[in-house]
């Protein structure tokens, strides 16, 4: 089954977890997800990796123009690996050298439409992480930093390999986190996503709700930092994701 069909089905499953949604085919750039209530949530970023890197950038397949560039150190790079009739990105794996290990992330430019503020938010990715590649923490997707700004983030927590979702609001340093009850570090592909709808914050693994938490309806996320895939940045101690990643997406509205 091709990546675009699989991704459409996953987004439909995420949408069905609360307010019913109508899902437009994601084969079309800039496709939107619309609530039957008339409100809409837009696909604002999508990275399939099928076209590889062109002109030093990874294309934003949503059509919104948020191309990604590599930020790396110690020769960090991503490799294209086959998946579901397309390509995925294998990020640097673990090494014993620590400070001299390759590090690499993909980062967008700064753009206001990647900030949800108080609006509904959903984001996720398809990941593959072997059990021998876990660590104290690995970031799959994030925008912002918990200590210095607001943030939304999807990560793999600890050596058990369980994913979790994070929200930190503006002018509020409290970290709101929802953890999955099941791990994903088994060397197989897993769909992992986070959803914030008003006060409900949910983590979904392979189409099933695996954790739920409550957040203030006033919680607002907006910052000037880039959207980052695979870690905090291309430097030591960046919470490097050490697996393969595909179909990274973000919806707001």
UniProtKB/TrEMBL annotation:
It comes from the Bacteria. InterPro entries: ConA-like_dom_sf, Laminin_G. CDD domains: LamG (cd00110). This is Concanavalin A-like lectin/glucanases superfamily protein. Keywords: Signal. Transmembrane segments: none annotated. Residues 1-34 form the signal peptide.
């Amino acid at each position: 089954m091709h990546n675009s069909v699989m991704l459409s089905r996953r987004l439909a499953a995420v949408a069905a977890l609360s307010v019913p949604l109508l899902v437009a085919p994601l084969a079309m750039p800039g496709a939107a997800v619309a609530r039957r209530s008339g409100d809409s949530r837009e696909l604002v970023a999508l990275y399939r990796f099928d076209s590889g890197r062109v002109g030093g950038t990874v294309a934003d397949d949503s059509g919104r123009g948020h191309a990604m560039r590599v930020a790396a150190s110690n020769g960090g790079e991503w490799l294209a690996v086959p998946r579901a009739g397309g390509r995925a990105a294998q990020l640097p794996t673990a090494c014993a050298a620590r400070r001299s290990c390759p590090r690499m992330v993909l980062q967008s430019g700064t753009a206001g439409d990647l900030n949800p503020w108080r609006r509904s938010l959903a984001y996720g990715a398809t990941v593959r992480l072997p059990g021998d590649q876990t660590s104290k923490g690995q970031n799959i997707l994030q925008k912002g930093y918990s200590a210095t700004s607001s943030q939304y983030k999807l990560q793999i927590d600890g050596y058990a390999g369980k994913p979790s979702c994070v929200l930190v609001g503006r002018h509020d340093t409290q970290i709101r986190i929802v953890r999955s009850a099941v791990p994903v570090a088994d060397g197989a592909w897993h769909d992992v996503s986070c959803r914030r709808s008003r006060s409900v914050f949910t983590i979904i693994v392979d189409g099933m709700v695996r954790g739920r938490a409550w957040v203030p309806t006033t919680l607002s996320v907006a910052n000037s930092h880039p959207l980052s895939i695979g870690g905090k940045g291309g430097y030591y101690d960046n919470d490097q994701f050490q697996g393969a990643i595909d179909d990274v997406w973000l919806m707001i509205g």
